[in-house]
Design brief:
mainly alpha, 0% strand, elongated
Length: 44
């Protein structure tokens, strides 16, 4: 079994300063993060 650990904030989704988090209504994926995760899932 292979395992990959990814940091979410600033790696997969946009990171915000602490004071802005209450106003965030949904994650915004960073450019290329979805494609990168698809490529990781396809690895054997």
């Amino acid at each position: 079994m292979k395992v990959v650990f990814l940091d979410r904030d600033g790696t997969i989704i946009k990171d915000y300063p602490e004071f802005q988090w209450p106003d965030v209504h949904g994650p915004k994926c960073l450019a290329g993060s979805r494609n990168g995760m698809k490529q990781l899932c396809a690895l054997e």
